[in-house]
């Protein structure tokens, strides 16, 4: 009996250690996200802020102002209405983000989407790792009055959501088609706790937001095709889409 108790205690300690390590890694990770604000009315400007930062020791997203913020300006953004018309959003540097705006001229759901494929290769050759080329997508939806849902992707990796009651229905796309069944999504809530979802055969998943604030829904895809970019060889390309959902 004594040995059994000791075994359980050791196993419990290992579990807590692994959990602490996981949250430590999450806390130190950096990422891009999108903040959208406006009145929700026709002919009143909508502001988007493209941010880069990391999670502090208290689980709060903090905007960075270093080298990566400068690279944020390489994002190209467009806004698309449910009728398929779209226009480019010009970004301008601010103190801790890049900012742009657009003017909604009709009721509807506007899909905001951006891509940054200008990142340099992540060179891990000196540590014996694999070189990787990152490509980042950002997206969000903005509703003006009543409108229909944009039900088709506007970029290679894309995410679209809608509500059924309090439940959020997530539709994910890869190369114009629903993402593969079994694909894992990561959802970060406003406190930056992480939940993993698995896509069904329709490329969909669901979750229920529990607190107000910004949720980030992440889809990753790895293309194993090797290549060279700006003189540096890479073994694969990591595509990442962060969909930013503000729950109020």
Structural category: mainly beta
How many domains in all?
1
Helix-strand pattern, N to C? HEEEHEEEEEEEEEEEEEEEE
**DSSP helical segment count:** 2
Helix content class: 10-25%
Would you kindly provide a written description of the structure presented here, covering whatever features stand out?
This protein is mainly β. The chain has one domain (2-247). 13% of the residues lie in helices and 48% in strands. It has helices at residues 2-28, 67-71; strands spanning 30-37, 46-55, 61-63, 76-80, 86-89, 92-93, 98-102, 108-116, 132-144, 157-164, 167-174, 177-178, 184-188, 194-198, 204-207, 213-223, 227-229, 232-234, 236-247. The chain is globular and about 55 Å long.
């Amino acid at each position: 009996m004594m040995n059994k108790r000791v075994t359980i205690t050791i196993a419990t300690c290992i579990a807590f250690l692994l959990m602490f390590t996981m949250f430590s890694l999450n806390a130190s990770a950096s990422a891009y996200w999108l903040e959208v604000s406006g009145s929700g009315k026709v002919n009143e400007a909508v502001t988007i802020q493209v941010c880069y930062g990391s999670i502090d020791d208290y689980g709060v997203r903090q905007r960075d102002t270093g080298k990566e913020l400068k690279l944020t300006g390489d994002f190209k953004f467009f806004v698309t209405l449910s009728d398929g018309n779209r226009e480019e959003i010009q970004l301008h540097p601010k103190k801790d983000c890049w900012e742009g705006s657009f003017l909604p001229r009709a009721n509807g759901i506007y899909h905001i989407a951006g891509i940054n494929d200008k990142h340099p290769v992540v060179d891990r050759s000196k540590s014996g790792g694999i070189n990787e080329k990152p490509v980042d997508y950002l997206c969000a939806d903005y509703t003006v009055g009543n409108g229909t849902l944009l039900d088709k992707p506007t970029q290679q990796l894309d995410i679209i959501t809608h509500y059924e009651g309090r439940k959020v229905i997530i539709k994910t796309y890869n190369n114009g088609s629903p993402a593969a069944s079994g694909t894992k999504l990561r959802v970060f809530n406003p406190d930056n706790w992480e939940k993993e979802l698995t896509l069904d055969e329709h490329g969909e998943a669901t979750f229920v937001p529990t607190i107000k604030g910004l949720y980030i829904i992440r889809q990753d895809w790895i293309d194993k095709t090797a290549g060279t970019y700006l003189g540096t060889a890479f073994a694969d390309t990591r595509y990442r889409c962060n969909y930013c959902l503000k729950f109020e």
